[in-house]
Amino acid sequence: MDNPPLVLLQEKTLERLLVGQAFVEVTEGDPVIRRRLRLASHVYSSWTARGTDPAALAAHLMDGSVEALEEFVTADHNSMHDGAQQAADSIENFFSAFSSQNTDIPRRHAEQLSYDEFVLEYMAPNLPVMIEGATEGWQACRNWVTTDGGVNLEFLAERFGQARIWATASASTSDGYGGGQRHDMTAGQYVDWFRRHKQGQEEQLLYLKDWHFVNEFSDYKAYVLPEYFRDDWLNEYHDMRQTSHHSASTSNGCTSQENIVTSDYRFVYLGPKSTTTALHADVLRSFSWSVNVCGRKRWRLLPPQYTHLLYDRFGREMAPDFELDGCQAERFPNLAAARRHVIEVVQGVGEAIFVPSGWHHTVTNLEDTLSINHNWLNAFNLHWGWALLCREHAEAAAAIEECRETCSSAEEFEALVQRNMAANCGLDFRAAAAFAVAAIDETGQLAADSCLACA
Ligand SMILES: O=C(O)CCC(=O)C(=O)O
Question: Does the Cβ of 372 fall within 6 Å of ligand 1?
Answer without folding.
Answer: no
